[in-house]
Amino acid sequence: MLKVSHLTKTFGGVNAVQDISFEAPEGLVQAVIGPNGAGKTTLFNLISGIYAPTFGSIQFRGEEVAGLAPDKLARRGLSRTFQNLQICMNLGAVENVMIGAHLQLNSSLLAGLFRWPGVGAADRAYRERAIEWMEFVGCEAYVGANANAMPYGALKRLEIARALAAEPKMLLLDEPAAGLNPTETKEVETLIALIAARGVSVVLVEHDMKLVMSVSDRVLVLDYGRKLAEGTPEEIRVNRDVIAAYLGGEMAEA
Fold it and tell me: Is the Cβ–Cβ distance between 9 and 19 less than 8 Å?
């Protein structure tokens, strides 16, 4: 589904990401972890088209996509969420989810001006679909609410619903449990498993190690912009280099 080869990104002489290679198989959950400043978000921004790589290759579903704009990647089936909420607080919850379906909607100026019958019918259909996605992520209680009236934990799931409304083949989740309490984190963990069960491949950046080890099929560990380790959660849990990166060399020895 996703193949990253020798990916490098330099900012003013600083290598934020250095020669990273990994693959994310179809239908699985691939986690990316590492200490603060390890390059996780930079890697996500490269994969999702926000940054263009300095060097390296990104193949999505067999096609080279390095440097493609986010909208072009979305049309190819790659969607993402952000660590910091990107919610339109002046819109209703359902309208926020409908934004994610804009690729399927008729955005023709003429169609909108003359209110062609098909446009209204499509809008109603996608509104119903947006409500279904809200129910899927556990936000059904907020169907009639404005986004600015929703609690933080629900807004995190609402953003996932909006990303899913684009009907992606792969979903990039950037710290979906950040700022959540244990109950909300468990809800997100369950949701990620449900998304993968629907056949959507997931690449996950997350600091909550309990969530990562519970829901991931594969784990990639970054440190100072380089790949430190890769393997199953069981292999990563006992990797001495990973323990040292998080806790220090002496703790790793202990």
Answer: no
